[in-house]
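pinned: reference chain
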Amino acid sequence: MERAIGAADPKYVAGSKIICVSSWDNARHSAEIIDRRASKDGIEYYVHYIDLNKRMDEWVSPGRIERLDTEVAPTLKSMMAEKLAPLTIPGTPNSGGQGSCDSKHDTPGTSDRKLTRNFKRRYDEIHNVQKGVDELAPIDQTLEKEHEEKTKIKNIQVVELGKYEMDTWYYSPYPDEYAHEHKLYICEFCLKYVKKRRTIEQHKITCHLKRPPGKEIYRMSAQSDDGSGKATLALFEVDGLLQKLYCQNLCLFAKLFLDHKTLFYDVEAFLFYILTEIDEDGFHLMGYFSKEKLSLEEYNLACILTLPPFQRRGYGRLLITFAYELTKREGKSGTPERPLSDLGKVSFRSYWTRILLSILKDHRGNLSIKDLSTMTAIRTDDIVQTLQSLNLIKYWKGQHILSVTARVVDEHLKNVGPQPTWSIDPAKMNWTPTTYAIKRPR
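pinned: its structure tokens
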């Protein structure tokens, strides 16, 4: 007989595998106990949901937990087979029937739906499954284990920024005095953080900053997504050397929504590009990206974040587009710093795909990978990987050759979604590249 949720707490320990009812969909998920603590209502458990990003981790009461029945618990392999079923064509190869597999179909499976390595790779790309620690290189395994141990529990659960209250996703290394508060209040203009609502209300009276403390380099207007009228956006460049405290506060705040982020206090070597929405009260933070002043690895973007209230509205693509427009003006090609977050991978792959397909549609003549890189400022290896995922490139006699037809490009363009609402006009950018000298040790 199955134990009812809410039965007596069996005193789970860290590492216990359980079934937990999540807060976001009230459904049962396989999970693991990470930690436990005493609360005013008794014991609470911090759980990680198996095969889900750890931003979904949360503190739960014993009433939402039940013991794991391994015979009925869903496994990753069975879920993959179910989700990938539409990509497979059941049947026997060369049978000639309706279910036959032939070269006309880009089908990564076989008649018995074996989960080959290529099949799993495609699943991981489509569904943004993160690599397990054991799949990484040895040095990366060590770093990842250290990172997971240090950041495995969210220390701050909620933040309030202006009119928005947001559940956090990850651990952030705020100073000890603030690091274990359930909720922090953030000034939306200077990003000062405090523990109490009364304190932030008092701060608003004395804070005279109504915009990021840097140079406005771009402004644009477009119809807002909700149809309420035109929205006006502005982008600012903020120098980490000149505005150190603001940039440090931004990094600590951003870490609540970015897992693999290591820049918090040493901000002097970075520029920060802040996206804001303008109204009568000021310039309101929506997202940002950072960029090294001098990158020997050709990184044109270090961290990127669109705040949760503004996601899925095209602003991430806007920030990526702007980063590449800066790179074009510098006369270079660039690539984002790795590792990319799961959402970052989706955003960049989507951007690269749309840009490359649009160029291939408009230029029917012979283009090389180098031509595409010059036109887009996208680094060649990113172009190759993107076109490989679209089956638009072949490797012949030691080099990559485009294999493109108008029909195939048009079919791909139908699948990439509608055109973005926001676009950048390079002629309106108030920005000139700055040359930074390499400081060599004496």
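why pinned: The first strand starts at residue 17 and ends at 21. Residues 342-362 form the longest helix (21 residues).
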